[in-house]
Amino acid sequence: MSEKIQVAVLGATGVVGQRFVRRLAEHPWFQIAHLAASGRSAGKRYSEACEWRLDGEPYAGLGHCVLEDADPALAIAPVVFSALDTEVARELEPAYARAGALVFSNAAAFRMEEDVPLLVPEVNPEHLALLAGQRARRGWSGGILTNPNCTTTVLVLALAPLHAAFGVEAVLMTSMQAASGAGYPGVSSLDLMGNVIPFIKGEESKVEIETAKLLGRFRDGRVEDALLAVSALCHRVPVLDGHTEAVSVRLKGNPSPEQVREVLDAWRPEPQRLGLPSAPPVPIRLHEAENRPQVRRDVEQDAGMSIHVGRIRRCPVLGVKFSLLGHNTERGAAGGSVLNAELALSQGWV
Amino acid sequence: MSEKIQVAVLGATGVVGQRFVRRLAEHPWFQIAHLAASGRSAGKRYSEACEWRLDGEPYAGLGHCVLEDADPALAIAPVVFSALDTEVARELEPAYARAGALVFSNAAAFRMEEDVPLLVPEVNPEHLALLAGQRARRGWSGGILTNPNCTTTVLVLALAPLHAAFGVEAVLMTSMQAASGAGYPGVSSLDLMGNVIPFIKGEESKVEIETAKLLGRFRDGRVEDALLAVSALCHRVPVLDGHTEAVSVRLKGNPSPEQVREVLDAWRPEPQRLGLPSAPPVPIRLHEAENRPQVRRDVEQDAGMSIHVGRIRRCPVLGVKFSLLGHNTERGAAGGSVLNAELALSQGWV
Amino acid sequence: MSEKIQVAVLGATGVVGQRFVRRLAEHPWFQIAHLAASGRSAGKRYSEACEWRLDGEPYAGLGHCVLEDADPALAIAPVVFSALDTEVARELEPAYARAGALVFSNAAAFRMEEDVPLLVPEVNPEHLALLAGQRARRGWSGGILTNPNCTTTVLVLALAPLHAAFGVEAVLMTSMQAASGAGYPGVSSLDLMGNVIPFIKGEESKVEIETAKLLGRFRDGRVEDALLAVSALCHRVPVLDGHTEAVSVRLKGNPSPEQVREVLDAWRPEPQRLGLPSAPPVPIRLHEAENRPQVRRDVEQDAGMSIHVGRIRRCPVLGVKFSLLGHNTERGAAGGSVLNAELALSQGWV
Amino acid sequence: MSEKIQVAVLGATGVVGQRFVRRLAEHPWFQIAHLAASGRSAGKRYSEACEWRLDGEPYAGLGHCVLEDADPALAIAPVVFSALDTEVARELEPAYARAGALVFSNAAAFRMEEDVPLLVPEVNPEHLALLAGQRARRGWSGGILTNPNCTTTVLVLALAPLHAAFGVEAVLMTSMQAASGAGYPGVSSLDLMGNVIPFIKGEESKVEIETAKLLGRFRDGRVEDALLAVSALCHRVPVLDGHTEAVSVRLKGNPSPEQVREVLDAWRPEPQRLGLPSAPPVPIRLHEAENRPQVRRDVEQDAGMSIHVGRIRRCPVLGVKFSLLGHNTERGAAGGSVLNAELALSQGWV
Fold first, then answer.
1. Same domain flag for C119 and C233
2. Residue D201 and residue D303 share a domain
3. C235 among known catalytic residues
4. What ipTM score was computed for the predicted complex, to two decimals?
């Protein structure tokens, strides 16, 4: 790639925005042209507008950059990454798409629109094709592509190869989710320390609905939801980053844990075959130790882009159960969006 | 009750032992006659032999008591509470039973023996009758009664009324268990802080096996296991006391969440009808707030003897799901054993 | 006391306000006549206006009470407890004092006013006399009395008997403060879990200034600050309730740790001599174990009203050092104010 | 350096041993020739003998290596790193020194011997010269060099430039120490979660004694302790890695915080001048933000080898106070020993 593609980051001051900036600061294909934020921050230097909340070099070396207003008339680029809140996204993202940008959004605003790809590159790359209809229908030269809720992302990465190999009939997933999933300041320390909160607003239905869409088939210009039963039971636990999920599945033909293990191990989907820059070497890291994966010890591997599976064993109720782990703010947010953009670029959509 | 019944506590220095002592120090029916421990501690004052790890008055006011050797020839009483480790229990508890004591054991050593009651008074009081056969077969004048694993105890308290009202066909339970379940010193802070450990040795099979026994029917002098599929997925989380369980059940006739709620709410089993001293006013506390029960905020209610249920809702896979919470070292250990003894006494077995 | 005195609680929905309500719900001398809150909550039932954040009976049994507007024309009583934010307190508390109420305030707004008593009943009960001048100068029939910052309160309770017995020349105090000191939602779990924050806005200077006032002498109608050097180094740590303080003192005559211990042990100040209802049996609990006091294990003793001292030993720099612990939201906030009111009542000011 | 120097690691299975291995696996000057452990582990593969407890590649890629017995007749090399327990170190380290190895020890066994260098390369490189006398007196061809207690190491790195520039008369240090300082399994989660433990066995006296030795002057073949008063107040807090220290100092001439800041900022001691491979670019990272350094966010910078200072301000009692932070198991243990070896090598002692 001779010249890098200019990109803008919307909502650069938040935690997900910062993760976008850190990922894009040295990206081989993309170059940050605009850091945009709400009117309140516009005009300030990045280092003055927010506190840097990640490890490594503060502001990814871009602390001196001046934030711009998130306005498609001002801060635009062919590729736009959106870490906007849902309400703001609902307004701004279409404006950017209309102005010609391909918007890779981490917000929930358009995820469930029929003509908007809800994308995990390893899982449903063919859904990208929804973009043609989206442009035609809406008269946009750009477009909106979304990545799913972080909990869903981790789950479908484990389900996709099983769905392809056997067919998933039912899945029951209990999550133990990190504090960072709620953004910053997010969950009060008084609520979370030494506690388990058995409720995350809207989370269970998001997982149940998005999973069916992600595993659905693209046919005749639209996505048909997969027919499977999904039940999510979501919890917040005193963990900083990384969602742990306890998963039971009913698969067609009732394969053995060993067969499930082989399928997960052998899976090499498109991003790995294409060698996309943000794709981990393998999408699924399998663990043999009986007490792994553990979120604090494993989740940062592969810059948080692989998911982790361990303890694959018989489930007396549904057939097979296993432990699952993934990084909610990397794979489940900023990293997922960047990988979506890499896929779109490699397929000629940018 | 004109005179209190003498009791002994075996393993009084450990955390469960201390909870026995605290519960028995002012018990209306029982009086501590012996505090027994391993040979290493025997002869020392209670306050010198161990560090008191509970809230409230240190050593429950018995710090001056001299510990005795856990030996049925020396420290015996009609009722014995055992907080011994499994290996030691395997040897000592039969010796006590042979010597005439009714041993209420918190250890796993004899839980799955056919003629040993595995007892939760609200759930299967009729299993006490196994004691007759146990005495006959083993030639003991005393006997051994056990309480189940803490995680099982909490689960069956929620399942029992549903099994009676509808019939439980399948249950899938994901636990988020407290550090205290592993005893002291138990889990290293380096393993647990900011982490989720997706494995507890032996725990899942205990829950799966014990649940079937507890919900089983006493007939012709023995217990027939209940026919239901049980799947447990057990985790350790950074919580001090109290196990949170995410439960999905398939019930006969597929009742609605509201019907399930009514059954749980109306349940008044034997300990409550008898007004046993350690029985909570109601066995199940139902929560209406969408983010309750929360372990740190709710688990100490009723001295840890009630369980908590909230968020009863449709499960797309099994029919109904809910949040469950109970105190692992009170209801699931010391308090459970004391309640067992109260039931046995009220039914004339002591 | 034949009839209870009517009281109002301002700011009843916050955490400190809830602690006021819990303490006053069954108080032998006081009866809650008004629960007041901001206009936003006024008119709602207490149980609807806020989430109850304490242990024990939700809303202290007053969930059905209707909140009133914090307005001296509406919700007034002879004794008023204020858990208002500083800015609101600055306006409302004088209005209440003018209207005849004796306002016991937990806010910082008037603490450092020359004619406002900053009061810890064990430490400086004679400062109550400032009230006469306050009324005269301001033309109020009521008045404002304040309790110090929570960290200061704990510190001066340990310093007061030493100052009386020896004279404190210098004190250096490093605090490890609980999350609850920052109110709710207060500190984000993302900032606090697994972390130490070496900064609490304004806290160090509050401790340094308030200590000198509290240990000062009442003479000729005013308080002369004590002449001593105070240095505070304040930290937030991942603890729920209770401030741990590491204290070194330079005392006149350089007494031994044993002499210090004897003075702390023998101290029986006015609230204990008077037997005020909220006064703990002894103000200072001395610990002998080398690893106590520990905040999670000790801070709730005496309903959080006593402070804890342990590890009294030589300090190579200042002479004597010790570990100190106290409850920030009980003794350091709601409980402290209630005890102030009890003292004022017992001395005829109400 | 044309050829790497062979080294052995004693106690390779523990947490500090693992950190030695990780640091040495790719070291530019050293090559691991032997991984040694207790007899119990000898003969096993490294990956079988212990669980890897660090981030990054498990066993630093040496999981296949066979552990040897820690016996100078078998597993010896010119440079030996010892992560042995104090009791074992007392026996084995002299045997290795006698056999010709230069032993860089993390154990406390020989730290306070008159002829054993207690070394922090930035602080007292000239103490290395003690080795000549040690060899002469003990008839060893090798020798023993130690690094101080982790808490001391962090403290003296901040004090050394101040002592050189002004002279330290007194220092009072309150520590908030991480769980990893107690080794593995170390502190029970039941003791540490949500708690502060105001006691660490032997820690305070180690800091007080070692600081005087480290800041002492090498003269006439021996080290004269520095004359300064040191007081340490040590606490364990719920943090994984990194010790936070609140420090107050009395300096000669009573310099201003700004002067102190300049001295710390300008300090470029020997390891930085020599460019030793494990030396951080600067020994002290100064923080400007009022709420930094924070252990969870800052301690891993420079692979844990720099210390962090912030909030330099007036202390009303001793003159100047500041926040200090350092990595206990890197700079305070394995990294410190490796840097010691690099210094010794660069000065021709190996």
1. no
2. yes
3. no
4. 0.95
